[in-house]
Amino acid sequence: MTKNKNNKTIWNTRIKGKSSSLFQKIGSSIEIDKRLYKEDITGSIAHVEMLFKQKIISFKIKNKIIFGLNKIEKEISNGKFEFNKIYEDIHMNIEKRLFQIIGEEAGYVHTGRSRNDQIITDFKIWIKSSIKKINSNINLIIKDILKLAEKNIYTIMPGFTHLKNAQPISFAHYLMAYIEMLDRDKKRFLNNLENLNENPLGVAALSGTSFNIDRNFTTKKLGFKKPTNNSIDTISDRDFVLDFLFSVSVCSMHISRIAEELIIWNSDGFKLINLSDKVTTGSSIMPQKKNPDLLEYLRGKSGSVYGNLFSMLTILKGLPISYFKDLQDDKDLIFRSHDTLIDCLQIFNEILRNLTPNKKNMSQLASSGHITATDLADYLVKNHSMSFRKAYIKTAAIVNLAEKKRKKLEDLTISELKKIEPNLTNDVFKVFDLTYSVRSKKSYGGTSFDNIKKMIKKYKKQL
Ligand code: ARG
Asked: Which of 169, 263, 277, 396 places its Cα 20 to 30 Å from the Cα of 354?
């Protein structure tokens, strides 16, 4: 273990009194921002390389600092680094240790920069890589959904509106709708890169610096697209934090909606899907129970994720521009939202692997509620030259008749049907067939089997 011998904060030269332990507890962020150690060291290395290139520090000092920083990275990675609350945050913990390893020359590392630009640099690099991680988790889910969809192209279930039987749908079409939602999530995360790709490093405390630094050099080194334009905006801007928290919120909301839908389908009233024991839990008193707790967890977690977004919006509201300590909480919010989302994505994936459709119940439920009534109306328009509105009224009369006779539409006789539309022939009965109905929805984006196959192909190619 490396011990910090001189337990003094860097600014102790002017602030003489020891800060209260309560202040240390509240003010110190090291327990949270130590997660940024790699990004902090990467940023510092780029910074000193630039200082050397610009002849602000010597070759020897640059190398010494980089040697020390690499050593610190190894210490932290191997769990051999002792973080100390009194040095407040990740930047000061690393700088303090750098002094211990290379001596006084460590004092050059902070030339022409401030913790204000340093923290945003670390944070932006971290968020950029976490977006990659999130999107690759989303891709894993999309792959599993595609597998399930492929197996269920011909599995017919009721499509619901208002949770009432609406029109027959392929189960795969529902699944492919989930892919659309997740695909938008991926795009939303990628859209965040636009702002994330502006390099904050070099704006220093708030006004820039009098040193002849080269911000384009660090921009390139750190994989950003361009340096930020205005030093004061740079240190106060946390829009990129909001963008990320919003993207996580929308993705969680999607997962929550899907979870709720699956909970309904899994309920004893519907029994449309089965969940294997791997993803259900029992009750402590009711021996028969298998509860979809994990789905409920997914639904519930959107609450805390929204909370994080609202916390950040509230922190920023009314905060004058430039740096204030209020901003420090952004890390905790982002880390918590990120971790929750990664958990949710992984759980969601596990549920999909342990979910099977109850095909018999799906088709039974789809055969109720006069679900092919719209198909009948469409048939009248196409074959008996009438407007849709007229066909709608005729079909409603046929549905009323079926209800009066306590029959399904397909069980009405041709003479019963003819009472409402005399020109009907036996040909009409084909429209009551669920497969016929699904197959006929060929318009782009519709549920026809052919459309679904094409979409599956498209997404498989994309992955
Ligand atoms: N730990 C701080 C934060 O996360 C770093 C910036 C500190 N700057 C300052 N002037 N106190 O916001």
From this structure: 169
